[in-house]
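Appendix B. Raw example, untouched.
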Amino acid sequence: MISTQFLLTALVVVLAPGTGVIYTLAIGLGQGRKAAIWAAFGCTIGIFPALVAASLGLAAVLHTSALLFHLVKFAGVAYLLYLAWQALRDGGALSLGSGTTTQTGWKICKRAALINILNPKLSIFFLALLPPFLSGTPAQAPTEMAILGGIFMVMTFFVFMIYGLFAAQTRRFLLGSDTAVKWMRRSFAAVFVLLAGKLATERA
């Protein structure tokens, strides 16, 4: 069940830059190491509902219900656009520079979790990713999916934490230039807009 193939597949998926990675990088640059760790933790927690949905078969319901899928999808799109605005707004939660609003760890965590919770493709992704690595015994499937999903979540946390800590480490150097700050803010906002557009075009 826990094979080298699964571990490598999971690692490739986790390493691939996505919305959670971009959020963690932005938080690390804007608010430092502790905030980056909270962001990584929140992105990891946000995976749990999708994993439960996949284990219970709710992902299949989401896949077949166009209305439900689109409701969750467009809530996710709206949230990504909100994050883009936060990146551009002076003193916003994702802005960079001395005027950045300092947030509590739990608030950072909650924002990060919502990124994955409001992505309907994540539960469908688990429904496609995990079954090939199961033993094939129906009675053991929920337990095995929970174990594999748990490993995926642990990998997500540590990889995202490394991303965030790297961003925090370069914070002082990058934020020393007003021009660099301006372009990074615009870049983060643009990426969130692009990700929102990509999610908007996804189909169940």
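End of appendix B.
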